[in-house]
DNA sequence: AGCATTCATGAATACGTATTCAAGGCTATT
DNA sequence: AATAGCCTTGAATACGTATTCATGAATGCT
């Protein structure tokens, strides 16, 4: 409860130097004579001095803090991404201020304002979108913002996604090669670019081969909605022999309905393919064939682009798409002569 | 790229008042005449002024920021907790700065220092521990620290856990009531109080009834270690008819080995009980009987205690234990005449 | 040796806000 | 009507650091 704040002034007095000298010792890349440095460091050590980041940020205009806004963690893909983002940014010397926001634009805008008040150097939006008037304001203030795993029609925003259309197409081609006839799609939320693009890629690739999907339903990235869609598929006259689901997290719910409620043999009676390749997809309980979103490379791209914009090296926003492979496991019938 | 920072000075000039008046308008609980307030608010609106949190924090000594240190998110319980913590603290007006740290004390201490440099008002340690010399320093600086889901022998630290010993005992009693004879335990990491307490509670309750566990192995809160322990149990002469696992996340791995590799009927041939009651435990794929850790109440307790210490209302540290019920599902044989 | 340069240091200032203090205007009380 | 008292506002200052500028010492050069 003593609450003894020790300042650079205190260190200066004890070391018999001026305050600016202390500051210089603790500012990387500034010249100080070794004699001074030794005196200052010893005094600092004895007093337990550490620079006050707030004061430093106030004057430099650099808070070395990145704001991260995320909507939910139901989908473990975002959890993995958070973990990797945190470590990558820390390596670069940045800290993370994290906010959870509801997915409607009003709430996100509110939170972005909060972050701006905290003088963050940059903002990452994971799986949420923001209004265009706010992005204008961000440009004005010179604070870069990047969308993670979400695209945006406004090309003045940087965004990092996986190659969702290509991914959807890969699924279609794999299923066609496996001889599937009645392919249904429980899409990701159509309010999100990821959901739309995966759907478009899938449907377009089918149509390119002269096929139509049996059914397409918006699964809203929700386990409940996906489960309901599955049940409805199998209460119809014509039932699917393959289901492509908008992401792994909801695909798990589909698997459970197929196996548990409908008593089907997944991979034999019906094929299921997901999207993300979260860690759980490799668990024996699920063994899910899925399109990998390379979280590591996506995170690296976000961090690189964000820091480039912060440091003024990249003034132009970029839309970066990262391709990921189809990971073949047991939940979907393999084409004849498939080699691992 | 304009980067026009508008300050309280700018607002003051435009409104024809002094800078302190502007400050007062934006400081809750300070009296200003309504005429002044109107003028200031209009000017602020026109200029798009928002107070600079850094400058405010520097002078008030309150950053309204809580540091959160977490080791890993493999265990979804911590993900749920993070989500709830974030929302609860935001409701109270606090922001979260999040860090991931490796679990060894040196790394944690480093991160705590980082947080102190950022003048956080309080620190929450989730599933990690810290050295005692650092806690001394924290006391000196007057920054409260709370352990979440981890106890500490040093009773000068506040901590919030579930009633782990009682929980372990509940499992023992349930299994005994169900007529199990050979009960094994794949414990949580014995380097953590949660792992030790659940183990102690379980073993003590067995011994109180004159029973000994068939085997106790440290599962390290790791899926791989738990899976290996399961295999070794069933390659021994005497095999268990029940396994209590240190947390749900590792229990899932145990379930998979039992079902997939050993072809056992879980709930019939062998009972499995976990700890946490994460959302996935209710999924049909797992249907896991488990002891619930009431994340909501634990989070509420952490937030309440932390804020009490920050505001100086609670000067004494407290160790808070929150009791949770056994959630009975299909993974464990129920006692005769069990009523839901 | 004398002068021009570089170099390290200290004094002063700035960053953007909250707070103390003094002064002034106003109401209320007698 | 005169004074005591409160309430509102502005001037000055503080928070803890980084940075500009001036100064003097030290070095290098011919």
Helix content of chain A: 40-55%
User: What is the oligomeric state here?
Assistant: homodimer
Outline the biggest β-sheet of chain A.
6 strands, parallel
Strand residue percentage of chain A: 15-25%
- For CATH, the homologous superfamily of the largest domain in chain A is named as Response regulator
List the helices and strands and how they pair.
Two copies of one chain form a homodimer.
Chain A: H1 8-15, H2 19-25, H3 34-47, H4 53-60, E1 65-70, H5 76-91, E2 95-100, H6 105-117, E3 122-126, H7 132-141, E4 145-148, E5 158-162, H8 164-177, E6 183-187, H9 193-208, E7 215-218, H10 223-234, E8 242-245, H11 248-261, E9 271-276, E10 289-292, H12 295-310, E11 319-322, E12 326-327
Parallel strand pairs in A: 1-2, 1-3, 3-4, 4-5, 5-11, 6-7, 6-8, 8-9, 9-10
Antiparallel strand pairs in A: 10-12
Helix pairs in contact in A: 1-2, 1-3, 5-12, 8-9, 10-11
Chain A binds a DNA duplex (30 and 30 nucleotides) through helix 2 and helix 4.
Description:
Two copies of one chain form a homodimer. Chain A is an alpha/beta fold and 340 residues long. Chain A folds into three domains: 8-51, 434 Repressor (Amino-terminal Domain), CATH 1.10.260.40; 63-162 and 295-322, Rossmann fold (3-Layer(aba) Sandwich), CATH 3.40.50; 164-293, 3-Layer(aba) Sandwich (Rossmann fold), CATH 3.40.50. Chain A contains twelve helices and twelve strands. In chain A, helix 5 crosses helix 12 (295-310). The longest helix of chain A is centred in the N-terminal third of the chain and has 16 residues, at 76-91. The radius of gyration of chain A is 26 Å and the shape is elongated. The first copy, chain A, starts with 7 loop residues before the first helix and ends in a 13-residue tail after the last strand. The mean pLDDT of chain A is 94. The interface between A and B is large, with 52 and 52 residues. Chain A binds a DNA duplex (30 and 30 nucleotides) through residues 5, 7-9, 17-24, 26-27, 30-33, 36, 51-61.
